[in-house]
Amino acid sequence: MFVFIRCEDMVDVRRLKMLQMVQLFKCEEDAAQAVEWLSELLDALLKTHIRLGDDAQETKVLLEKHRKFVDVAQSTYDYGRQLLQATVVLCQSLRCTSRSSGDTLPRLNRVWKQFTIASEERVHRLEMAIAFHSNAEKILQDCPEEPEAINDEEQFDEIEAVGKSLLDRLTVPVVYPDGTEQYFGSPSDMASTAEHIRDRMKLVSLKRQQLRHPEMMTTES
């Protein structure tokens, strides 16, 4: 009777270990998948999240969409971390070594670091674009019969400075801790975005000239 009970216990232990092994393999596979998902989100961020908006309102919408996109990436990263923590617990219980968690965790952390760096750069560009568009729109939309309301050289200087900084920013790559670099979008994407900013800067410059020389407005009208 004692031998029979002991055999049953051994069978239960083996069954538990088999279940834990299945769980371990599943956690390892899902953790690797989380790394792939996060890599795909990083790729999408760099290749498709290019536009800075044609006006302040659109740029604000793009910023909000980006924040939601970051939330998805954060959830993916957290999911991967939880799976890898589960593999550690299972390995300790099984007294074995994980097949992949040893290199999966560094890969997960590396991709997440790259994503956060690229995301912060995206946010910085969008915030600069919002400031640029907002100030430009204020200048361009003010009533011509009240030129004194916007006849402030500092406002024009600020718009020009932000515009130039934004154009410079477009040419700067995202630099990762390992020294590798990546750009947002293709050269044609960059050129298209820069062209729109330059067009807006030209309109602001024209407005400045009109305020300096009111006779220009009279002649054109």
TrEMBL record:
GO terms for molecular function: phosphatidylinositol-3,4-bisphosphate binding; phosphatidylinositol-3,5-bisphosphate binding; phosphatidylinositol-3-phosphate binding; phosphatidylinositol-4,5-bisphosphate binding; phosphatidylinositol-4-phosphate binding; phosphatidylinositol-5-phosphate binding. It comes from the Eukaryota. Coiled coil: none annotated. This is SEC14 domain and spectrin repeat-containing protein 1. It comes from Diceros bicornis minor.
